[in-house]
Each structure stands twice: as C-alpha cells, then as structure tokens.
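Support request, please re-run this one:
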Amino acid sequence: MLIHLIHRLRRRWNVDLPTLARSMTSCTELLQRHLDRQRQPSRDWRICFLYNSGMTKQADLIAYVFEGQPHLLSGELLQWMEASSRFSAFVETYRDKIRKKIRLTREPESALDLRGELEVAYCLLSDRRLAVAYEPYASAKRRGPDFAVTYRANLVFNIEVARIRVEESGVDGIDLPRKEERFLRILLYKLGQMQPGMPNLLVIHTRKELARSIDLGRLMQEIKTRVEGKDPSFYDISHYTSPAAFYKDFLHLSGILLWAASPDVQLWVNKQARPTLAVEVLRLVSSLPSSTSLPG
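Re-run finished. Output below.
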C-alpha cells in the first residue's frame, strides 16, 4: 500500500524517486520539530518559572501581600523578614490579614499606622520568650487589642498600638497643649478596646521630639484630675458621662508605652489596674528597641 502511494505521488508531482524521498524526509523533520515545540513550555512560562524558583520565601510573601505592586512598606517589611525568621513566620501565618490591611492603606499616613503595628510585632518577636497573635479578638466581632502576647508560655497580655500622626501633631515646633490633647483623644478611643480580666498595654508611636517634651506621669495625673473634677472640657470630647464610667475601662489599662527612638521611650504604669502586668514584662517590652524612628 505504501509503495502504491509513493508511485501515485511521483506521477502526480512528476518527480523522480530520489527527489520525492528527500521531500518526504524534510516534511517529516519539520513535523517532528513542530511536535517537539508543542511539548515544551512557552518561553515566557520558562522565564517566569526560573524567576520564581530563584525567589526567597520572604520575597514570595512580599509579592503575595502587596499583590506584586510597589508600596511604601514593601522594602522595610522584606528587610524585617530577612532579619527575623520568627517575624517571617508571623507574616506567613497572617498574610491574608496583612494583605487585606495593605489594600486599605490608600494614604501614606494609613500605611504608617499599619507599619507601626507590624513594627511592634517585629520587635516583640525578637525576644524568644514572647509569642504574638494578631487581632485574636476579631472573630468575636468586637473591638479588641491588636496583639495577644504570651510570655514564657503561661502569661498572656494584650497590646494595642496607636500613632500620633503628622497632621495631628504638626511638623514644625512642639505645640504641647495641642499634642497633649491629641494624646488624650487617642487614650479615650483606645480604652474601650482594653479586655477585662487581662493585662492590657497601650503602645503609642511618636517622634522623639514629642516624646522628649511630654511628661507622661504628669499628663496622666492631670487627666485623672479632670475626670474626677468633672471638667466639662474633658467630657465634651469623651463618650464617658461620669467618673465611674471612665474608671470602668481605665482600670483595664495596665500601662502606656510612649514609643520613640531610644532613649526617648517613656513607660507609665497604672497602679490602679486590675489585673496588673508583671513589672518584669513591662520592663522587657519597654526595652525592646524600635527598628527606626517613625516619621510623625
């Protein structure tokens, strides 16, 4: 049958047998090369594969949480992960939560608020005695602190993070009354997130110039005096209606850490808090160095 087909092709194309054989061989080779190309991945796919296979785990996480887009925080977050395997594991565990938060940071100040949260986690995880859970109360559909921190596997306390923003504090000079009023507003907003029956620490990021200008102990005493004296200017900016209502939340606050570049960190301990946070833990957290001084 094959011989019959060859003779038909030879008569139809009016070629001798050697020429026909060479033509068929060339066609066969072309067909084989085409089939080989079909079996191979495309060039673009191969380049993509080789690129991804060379990326580090940390770089893969950065690509995921920032969705491959440039962002104010991406470089610093990558540095923190490369410097700390524990923080890298933290980002991997909470990557979907972090990714969602990044999507919502449409302005530089919002991005720096998120940076403040992640910096606290990074610094806490630098001490192996501390384990950190991110927004553990969110599933209960209620406001709660940013972190639940476990010390030596048996003592659990909460940390809520805030930041005095540039537009709220000003960039020129130190307008102390204005900044102290802003501090008060942060305190009033955050008190409602303190969890009853547990120690709670409020960490407030600020510039070192402001941290140096504030006497945290004096400021807290003045706030209590305004509360107990039923100062109208206090209650005008507060949702509290009486000293009793204020102290119901205030007694859940174990302390405040005004966090700036070392050595300008200030710690205030609430001696009225129930329960209190162990002094050794307060000292440990307040001694953890800030990675850098936050702008604003």
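The beta strands are 130-134, 147-151, 155-163, 200-205, 255-259, 266-269. The chain has 15 helices and six strands.
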